[in-house]
């Protein structure tokens, strides 16, 4: 028979595990379709630096996965008290909204929108419920930290990939 502490520890692994699984499934769609969305945006704005190929997209998403995976491991290890984990939970919740907003603004399909609500959002909700159940629900500062962590991280991941792939091609 499992001890109460073991049950709590197992329960704590569920939220981070669901969050990472949801992120991974969502980002399969996002990585596969991101180049088309970037190319559309480049065509509309004339900013050719926005263009991206499929290899760059997969590599950028892979780098971001290292951050999300690490945050989820920290969330499981700390029973949700990791500031990075809390920021990633909150940031991915906001990320769902950015997909919907981008699609409305573009008035067309944009990368990741198909899985944002039915896949990513339930993962965020599950992780958020675990935090609330433990008496430490997400707060406004977690939302702010989510943006502070995830927005620059996404840009840095794609910048690193572009620089690495550009040098390799030359």
Protein architecture, described:
It is built from five helices and no strands. It has helices spanning 4-45, 54-77, 83-106, 113-133, 140-169. The longest helix has 42 residues, at 4-45. The N and C termini lie far apart (61 Å).
Radius of gyration using CA atoms only: 17 Å
What is the CA–CA distance across the termini? Answer: 61 Å
Total helical elements: 5
Q: Helical amount among residues, as a percent range?
A: over 70%
Please, what is the average pLDDT? 91
Order of helices and strands: HHHHH
Write down the overall geometry: globular
User: Helix/strand/pairing class, anyone?
Assistant: mainly alpha
Strand content is under 5%
Largest sheet geometry: none
Summarize the structure.
This protein is 83% helix and 0% strand.
Structure keywords:
single chain; 170 residues; mainly alpha
List the topology elements.
Elements (H helix, E strand, L loop, with lengths): L3 H42 L8 H24 L5 H24 L6 H21 L6 H30 L1
């Amino acid at each position: 028979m499992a001890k109460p502490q073991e049950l709590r520890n197992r329960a704590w692994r569920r939220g981070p595990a669901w969050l990472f699984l949801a992120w991974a499934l969502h980002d399969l769609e996002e990585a596969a379709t991101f180049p088309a969305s970037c190319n559309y945006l480049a065509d509309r704005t004339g900013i050719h630096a926005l263009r991206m190929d499929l290899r760059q997209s997969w590599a950028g998403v892979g780098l971001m996965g290292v951050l999300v995976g690490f945050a989820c491991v920290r969330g499981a290890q700390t029973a949700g008290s990791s500031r990075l984990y809390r920021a990633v939970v909150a940031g991915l919740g906001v990320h769902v909204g950015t997909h919907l907003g981008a699609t409305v603004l573009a008035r067309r399909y944009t990368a990741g929108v198909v899985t944002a609500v039915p896949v990513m959002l339930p993962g965020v909700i599950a992780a958020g419920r675990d935090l609330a159940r433990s008496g430490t629900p997400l707060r406004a500062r977690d939302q702010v930290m989510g943006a502070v962590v995830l927005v620059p991280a996404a840009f840095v991941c794609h910048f690193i990939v572009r620089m690495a792939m550009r040098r390799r091609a030359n």
